[in-house]
Amino acid sequence: MSSVFEEKKQIIAKIKTAGIKSAEIDAEILVESASGKSREFLLAHPKFEMTDVMVKKLDAMVTRRLTNEPIAYIVGVKEFFGLDFFVTANVLIPRPETELLVETVLDFPQTTNYKLQTILDLGAGSGNIIISLASNLCNPLPIVNELHKSGNYFRFFASDISFAALKVARKNARFHSVDDKIKFIKSDLFQNISDKFDIIVANLPYVPKESEKRKVPTGSAEARKSEKLWKKEIYFEPESAIFAADNGAGLIKKFLDQAKNHINKNGLILLEVDPRNAKNILLYSRRKFTSTELTKDLTGKDRLIKILT
User: Fold this and answer.
1) The pLDDT of residue 225 is above 50
2) What average pLDDT does this structure show over 137-156?
3) For helices 128-138 and 99-107, angle between their N-to-C axes, nearest 10 degrees
4) C-alpha distances in Å from residue 299, one per residue of 80, 231, 245, 303
5) Dihedral sign computed on CA atoms, order 206, 94, 305, 270
6) ∠ CA 249-255-257 to the nearest 5 degrees?
7) For residue 282, what pLDDT is reported?
């Protein structure tokens, strides 16, 4: 057996040798997952002895990380908006920048007079957006307390083209006790959706296909290590959830073409976009909707298309 301190030291050295910059935090997450102990416990007990079973599990995780497989897929969990979400290779890993979308929706209902708000998350993936909204709006934080005093209530809908993704989303909804509040729909954009909604949010594939070559090298581990493409974590995520034609705008433009028939008057449409094609999508959106604006994220990059109807 070896101590937590010793294991972390060895893991950090291995991960750094592989050229991965997040070695320290990676080591903490992997040791926490393999040991089943909280980060607080491990920090307070650096001499805690890991069992042979724990070390074997940890070694397997480290081996996967050395191939640059994302930590979230290795441990099976990713935090988003203060909540933990199960993730598999069938869903996109939730990103911090997407939290801006959730924050914007939480701000929006306070300015309306509806007693019922219907919210659709189109392309829900792991369900991180719609579940974060349902968790906050049904068990309100201070940001939405005034909204609940006015008697407003909500119905939530989540759609995705992938059965596998919806399975993950349902699991997350059950975990956060909001599965009875969300209706899940398998649909290619609005194909199987006939209703209209007060709020529609979408984080659709938006990375330009033209900017990447989706190729994972074959051959020996050493041969693959020499390929820069193989080192990118993005190649472990589902291609259909990341890349889009027309410089990344293809699917979003189809969404905008259809969305006008599914949004209520005085409603809100929010789209996460790639900063590289954000202005192009903004111009296209303005052909469909009068009130459209572009919002920057905390890093100053163009990130959200906001449409008021």
Assistant:
1) no
2) 62
3) 40
4) 18, 25, 26, 10
5) positive
6) 100
7) 95
Domain range list for the chain? 2-66, 89-209+240-308
Compute how many other C-beta atoms are within 10 angstroms of the C-beta atom of residue 163: 9
For residue 114, what pLDDT band results from cuts at 50, 70 and 90? low
304 in Cβ contact with 100 (< 8 Å): yes
Weakest-pLDDT range from 8-12, 180-184, 196-200, 208-212: 208-212
pLDDT above 90: residue 108: no
Topology (CATH) of 89-209+240-308: Rossmann fold (3.40.50)
pTM of the model: 0.88
The CATH code for residues 2-66 is 1.10.8.10
- The average confidence (pLDDT) of the chain is 88
238-294 pLDDT tens trace: 888 888 888 888 999 999 999 999 999 999 999 999 998 899 999 999 999 999 999
DSSP string computed for the chain: -EEHHHHHHHHHHHHHHTT-TTHHHHHHHHHHHHHT--HHHHHH-TTPEEPHHHHHHHHHHHHHHTTT--HHHHHTEEEETTEEEE--TTSPPP-GGGHHHHHHHHHGGGG---SEEEEEEES-TTSHHHHHHHHHHHS--HHHHHHHHTT-EEEEEEEES-HHHHHHHHHHHHHTT-TTTEEEEE-STTTT----EEEEEE----EEGGG-------S-HHHHHT-TGGG-GGGGS-GGGTEETTTTTHHHHHHHHHHTTSEEEEEEEEEE--TTTHHHHHHHHHHH-SEEEEEE-TTS-EEEEEEE-
